Amino acid sequence: MEYNVLLYERELIMGGQLEETINNTAGFHVVRRFQTATDAIGQGGMFQPNLILFDTTGKNAIGLLEKFHEAFPRLPILCTGDQWRADTASRFLQAGGSGYIVKPFTTEELREAVENFAKNGSGRDSSVYTFFSPKGKSGKTTLIANLALALARRTREQVGIIDADLQFGDMAVFFNLQPATTIVEAVRDSEFLQPVSLSSYFMPVTENVRVLCGTRTPNLIDRVAIDGFERILAMSRELFRYVLIDVPQAFNPTSIAAAEASDATFLCAMKNDGYEVYHMMRALEIFKDWPDYQERVKPIFTRVTPCNAASREKLSDDLGFPVAAVIPNAYDIVSTAADNGRMAVDIEPSSALTQAVNKLADQLTRGSHVAMEARA
Ligand SMILES: Nc1ncnc2c1ncn2[C@@H]1O[C@H](COP(=O)(O)OP(=O)(O)OP(=O)(O)O)[C@@H](O)[C@H]1O
Ligand SMILES: [Mg+2]
């Protein structure tokens, strides 16, 4: 695709520099550069751009962006600024932006930023889900890995997994990855990152699924870097349609920050010694502080036998709260998959486990439509 770029840049020197970079990027061409928003809105249409670069550094940038969006409702608008900021990023997206890039940018960064929203849509519609377990060994890493594949397959959209276990992440082992970079480096570098540069910290698993791995080397980053972690989560919304976060067990600053930043939090417990309903109740108690916890907290039980609607209802009754999903006992296929570095949903597409995971994937894709309509 050829991009005819309308460049709105207030600074003369920066404008010249950006224009040169854009024209040096294969497939990109500046059709017109404007220094004022009024001129760009008034005259821009004549040059038939199909991509707008919008300078966010001026006063009332959100209001101006809304005006651009009104004037060019069908064109993608890539915001440019001095620094990516978590607190304004979502406001720019809500106001009509399709992505954000720090300037001056390279030809590579420009191409990646545009490819990113062309592939993925703008971060406006992304859904972020945290998977938390009141006790360890709940089956949540297994569930997330399989759910990510199921979501990508059903929607053909980009799915990101974030292993937020800053001490004992196991997602890399699941996918047989030797990550060059992990969440520790991403959080460490977060202040200098923007969505396009964060992208390379994720390791590809399939065409549509990528993982930001946790680390197996214990370190103290958990104590200091919550704001960096929050920045990574906010940037990930621009990179993926779905983001699934595996958080360390128990409540700590990381799991709380992930849950706060998520559209929903799944509480996972494995049927085991009979205490799991009790553990789940205790976990629910903690989330009751959220005014909207009824919608944002979703219990899941794994290794449920028999895995059917009756078991789910019984668990909901025992818990006094609706259970979102039940996942069957699938020890054999889960361990065969693990031994082969593959996922259960790939190995046995018709198994009860795959069906349960697909059902949950359907719930999430439907759920996000509802959420989007509510937001619109
Ligand atoms: N649906 C299932 N049925 C039976 N066994 C399962 C199921 N899901 C996972 N397991 C097994 O339970 C164990 C724990 O699974 P998993 O690592 O996914 O849980 P976790 O909650 O991420 O654990 P951790 O607390 O170590 O992070 C693994 O041995 C896995 O093979
Ligand atoms: Mg795990």
Explain the overall architecture.
The chain is of the alpha/beta class. It has two domains: 3-124, Rossmann fold (3-Layer(aba) Sandwich); 126-375, 3-Layer(aba) Sandwich (Rossmann fold), CATH 3.40.50.300. Helix content is 47%, strand content 18%. The chain contains 18 helices and 13 strands. Helix 8 (183-189) packs across helix 11 (226-239). The longest helix is centred in the C-terminal third of the chain and has 24 residues, at 352-375. The relative contact order is 0.11. Residues 140-141, 170 line the site of magnesium ion. Magnesium ion binds at residues 140-141, 170.
Name the descriptors.
376 residues; Rossmann fold; 2 domains; 47% helix; binds adenosine-5'-triphosphate
SSE layout:
Elements: E1 3-8, H1 12-23, E2 28-34, H2 37-43, E3 51-55, H3 61-71, E4 77-81, H4 86-94, E5 99-102, H5 107-120, E6 127-132, H6 140-155, E7 159-163, H7 171-174, H8 183-189, H9 195-198, E8 203-204, E9 209-212, H10 221-224, H11 226-239, E10 242-246, H12 253-261, E11 264-270, H13 276-287, H14 293-296, E12 297-304, H15 309-319, E13 325-328, H16 331-340, H17 344-347, H18 352-375
Parallel strand pairs: 1-2, 1-3, 3-4, 4-5, 6-10, 6-11, 7-9, 7-10, 11-12, 12-13
Antiparallel strand pairs: 8-9
Helix pairs in contact: 6-18, 8-11, 11-12
The structure holds adenosine-5'-triphosphate (ATP) and magnesium ion.
Adenosine-5'-triphosphate (ATP) is lined by residues 133, 136-142, 170, 249, 302-303, 327, 329-331, 334-335.
